[in-house]
């Protein structure tokens, strides 16, 4: 591993993660769907992976896989509920979903770390 990469690994990982979050909004809008469900899925996947690492003692890759699967299941269920909505109604429903995820994360107490967040979930991507 080069010295440049070692010095900038956090910046690179943060940039790539933020790029994925931006794509979760950009791609549906390009197809004419006004949806912010990707932001809620991002939160569900992130918190699930962090909870699996901190509270269950899992390693990085199984935690990330669990977060991706749980986020996919929740968003699939959301899709079944909002599939007939269009335009601004779809946007309002998915923003409401994202706000519900945010409220659950902040009021999750010991499980989610509450308003302070969840610490100790730094896993290496080796």
TrEMBL record:
<dbReference type="GO" id="GO:0015658">
    <property type="term" value="F:branched-chain amino acid transmembrane transporter activity"/>
</dbReference>
<dbReference type="InterPro" id="IPR001851">
    <property type="entry name" value="ABC_transp_permease"/>
</dbReference>
<feature type="transmembrane region" description="Helical">
    <location>
        <begin position="89"/>
        <end position="109"/>
    </location>
</feature>
<feature type="transmembrane region" description="Helical">
    <location>
        <begin position="6"/>
        <end position="25"/>
    </location>
</feature>
<keyword id="KW-0472">Membrane</keyword>
<keyword id="KW-1003">Cell membrane</keyword>
<dbReference type="Pfam" id="PF02653">
    <property type="entry name" value="BPD_transp_2"/>
</dbReference>
<feature type="transmembrane region" description="Helical">
    <location>
        <begin position="32"/>
        <end position="58"/>
    </location>
</feature>
<keyword id="KW-0812">Transmembrane</keyword>
<dbReference type="InterPro" id="IPR043428">
    <property type="entry name" value="LivM-like"/>
</dbReference>
<feature type="transmembrane region" description="Helical">
    <location>
        <begin position="64"/>
        <end position="82"/>
    </location>
</feature>
<dbReference type="GO" id="GO:0005886">
    <property type="term" value="C:plasma membrane"/>
</dbReference>
<keyword id="KW-1133">Transmembrane helix</keyword>
<protein>
    <submittedName>
        <fullName>Branched-chain amino acid ABC transporter permease</fullName>
    </submittedName>
</protein>
